[in-house]
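Troubleshooting: if your tokenizer reports a length mismatch, compare against these two reference records.
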Amino acid sequence: MNIEKFLGHHGVSTNPFAAEEASLDPVFDRMLDGPAMHPDFAKVLGRIDRPSGAVVFGEKGSGKTAMRLMTERHVARHNEENPESRILIVPYDDLNPVLDRMTRWFRGDELVMLDHFGLADHQDAILSRAVTRLIDGLLDDDPETVTTPLPQDAWQRLRRLRRDQRIDFLALAAFYDQPVNGSMMARWQRLKQKLRTGWRLPHQVILQGAILLSLLGAGLAATLGLELGVAFYLTPAAGITLGGAIALWVWWCWSRWTLWSRCKQLIRELRPIDRTVEEMMSMLGQIGAVDLARQPLPVSGKQADESKPADDGRYRLTQRLIEVLGVLGYTGVMVIMDRVDEPTIISGNPTRMRPLIWPLFDNKFFQQPGVGIKLLLPIELRHLLYKESPEFFQSARLDKQSLIDRLSWSGATLYDLCSSRLRACRQSSNTEFYLTDLFAEDVTTPLLVDALDQMHQPRDAFKFVYNVIQEHCRIIPEDEENYQIARLTLDNVRQRQAQRVQDLYRGLSPG
């Protein structure tokens, strides 16, 4: 029998159990607007209007990516219903670009790079994604990819900010904006023009003026010296002019060297950001020394404001981003970290994941006002975490971070999930349809619940049900038209799939 014919007999238009990855699952897309199936989802989500931290450990296929997608959908719905208290979602699920740029700083040595990957690097990467998303929405560079809805009067709101606040936003863009397409400098100039921060004489013009004054001073001194028959350096007017030109030249050289040194330091600190010293100099040179001096620079050294800790710059920059977002109707930021085992450098190796993730277990980082950090982590890291010292847990304070020790599923929850997927794929609007309706009368709900309980998680549960349907269709001829799966078929597939799951947990099977 054909699987499509079997499902079609039950009014199911699409196989609900064929997909194994939530991000590529069309059935899951239909269910995103429905109720959450996992009982721990509400704890992970928390209050959307007051984003908070959460740490989730789960097996492969336990639903971490599905939880991320559902979180994004709930936040999107909240944003539609509350346009003046939106939350900015910052996906932190593709670490390959960040790790590749970091590796170049360590001459291709991946292990050394991971050992030196710190909390500051995570903060820079997260700020970069948040700032880039915001500026994408403001400049509307690519309407098809813009995911940050903004009010119609966004620019008017930003222009009503004080000048120093608009300068702060420009500095954030200079540090962190990472456009996918187009010139960084052209984009920054557009932002500066729209923010109307005022005009400042470029350093190149100052240099040309210094050169011109030097030539005029020298020419005037020589002319007066010839006419008066005295040495040109004794001419007061020429001496003052030439002295002013020299002073201007020295000032320009000193200011350029100071700016270059600062930009060089910034480039060394902002390792996850793709920026050159020349680009940074061009942008910061237009901000001005006075405005730049009060900026909390993302560096590990001494801050311009000596009353602030040396490592406080990134936290202050995050709060300045929150302030800008507040003007645009956003009350906070929600960062969702997922798929940390997938980057090429990591390749699922727990010992490589550990130095990458451990810096994030910082209570101050989790408790930032207006910022919710959601970490969806592989179960292998949980085993390593529980080997840490009491001092580590005291510093991390995971007891305050909505910790989900293991994202586990009961057989009853998996049964409800499978039934919901069946109903989502049915052509009929009748909601009274359950997984047991595919089986013979002697296959009861408790029997299916017990079988699904051995699968432990959604991905394996879907594989199990898919194989049961496939086995039934394999042994039933087309002309027999038997559309109820027998208990014997269920038991045979159950035995094989339970053994596969056990082998998977022991590391004896790839999946």
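Reference record two:
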Amino acid sequence: MNTLHHSSNTPFVLTIASTKGGSSKSTNAANIGGFCAEHDLKTLLIDTDTQPTLSSYYALSYSAPGGIYQLLLDKNTNPETIISKTVIPNLDLIQSNDPSNNISQMLRNAPDGALRFSSMLKQIKGYDVIIVDTRGTRDITVDMSVLAADILFCPILPHILSAKEFIRGTIGMYQDLSTFSDFGFKLPPLKAIANCVDHTNDVKFVLSQLHTLFQNEFTDDKQLATFTIPYRVAYREAATYSVPVYRHSPTEYNTIKELCLLLLPQFKDYFERNFEV
């Protein structure tokens, strides 16, 4: 069982966030986590959403009695009480267990508020990668997850209303959090990636407009990738069967590999190893 405090290595934290619901944050978290784990990276998924989609994606070989609530509430939490193990080797999970959203109220009233999560993640040892899934709205739990990240992955649905919400909500949140730089916090680079992309003309138009916006209006810490995640029914089917999408549909292996290389390039040697799907 993994332990807090005992290992000297510091995990790399990837937070997935969008203030627009339905952008497949949890699906991406599950697929990235499965890919990392199956390429020999010790990986921890953390579900901070009150609707625990990520917590339900994979079957568990061990279900811890606690989860994200205990992690944030009790600074002396025993890891065995909060870290569950999925059936995929190397892939663990801190489940969402706060359906009444008590965590948000607690953090708003706490002196360390949005900074507590960052402090707690620094105490989690024994992992190479931590992947944090967030809720699809603006909330202090999303703020804390962004502030704790080494990189921020923002999936965007390539539709005009979703793109507008991304600019208003997600980019607005990111810019608001820049005030924490006065306290020594450096915001993670933001990597936006179009998700559920098909070949229709309206999608091509929206993506063209987004690329122009990023090039002309945003600084280098906010980037829109030329890489896109395609629309495939296989992603929904894989979630039904509780497996990574590339296990259900091997043709998606290269998509998830490219996604991981884009977000976690420091682990390229792991991702380039021979792997049977």
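Descriptive notes for reference record two:
- Residues 160-176 form the longest helix (17 residues).
- Residues 1-8 have pLDDT under 50 and may be disordered.
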